[in-house]
Amino acid sequence: MQSQSITPVITIDGPTASGKGTIAHKVAETLGWTVLDSGALYRLTALASCQQGVDAADETGLASLAAQLDIRFHAGLVWLDGQDVTEAIRQEAIGNLASQIAALLPVRQALLERQRAFRTAPGLVADGRDMGTVVFPDACLKIFLVADAQARAERRCKQLKDKGFPANLTLLLEDLLARDERDRQRTNAPLLAATDSHTVDSSNLTIDETVKVVLDLWSNLGFRAR
Ligand code: CDP
User: Fold this and answer.
1) pTM strictly above 0.85
2) Which residues line ligand 1 (CB under 6 A)?
3) Structural domains of the chain in order of their starting residue, each with its CATH number
4) Could you count the other beta carbons within 10 Å of the beta carbon of residue 178?
5) Among residues 86, 119, 132, 186, which one has the fewest Cβ atoms lying within 10 Å of its Cβ?
């Protein structure tokens, strides 16, 4: 058994709608760990900027907004300034705005320590784009979760419809490819597999099969699920 002097982290990075959030929650649940949905922090910043009228090009204003967000994650719900915004942050328009402002270095810096503060015992599963490369470079296990674009668009379409939002598969596929491109091409913390990450393609895997791949990789490191 490997010894771990600091709280262990498993990172799950990957493109939009690759299933990172679902897999991260299930892995965290199995291990009894905390989960960090880092995308939610960018989405919350985007939502707050709309509510407070901060322009998407105002780097300083957005960074100070990100630093001061009054947020709470509890029992699967997300709160902003005391209001339940769990559904509101999942709108495609907010996701697209989040992707735009996530390219701004001052915003990323403002959120860096907030993300690291989620690292609490007994462990953390962190999902996002730069968890393994920038936020938790010392993570014990790094997963880069991919799936082909069509499979991801279909998943996102179903997810939105299940939540009662309108969804059009063709438009979603276009949006998703544009967001992938923006996340990959940006200078600051681009979407990139860490050199020491394991790439997992979930195009033809069920959720449970994907979770098992991650947990098996974790066990192979000499750690055990609870
Ligand atoms: O659900 P989806 O994968 O589309 O997005 P998300 O994980 O909720 O993140 C929303 C946006 O925030 C993404 O499109 C990224 O541009 C950005 N993001 C980021 O830059 N870095 C992260 N660690 C997480 C999200």
Assistant:
1) yes
2) 16-17, 38-39, 42-43, 95, 98-99, 102, 128-130, 179, 183
3) 9-220 (3.40.50.300)
4) 13
5) 86
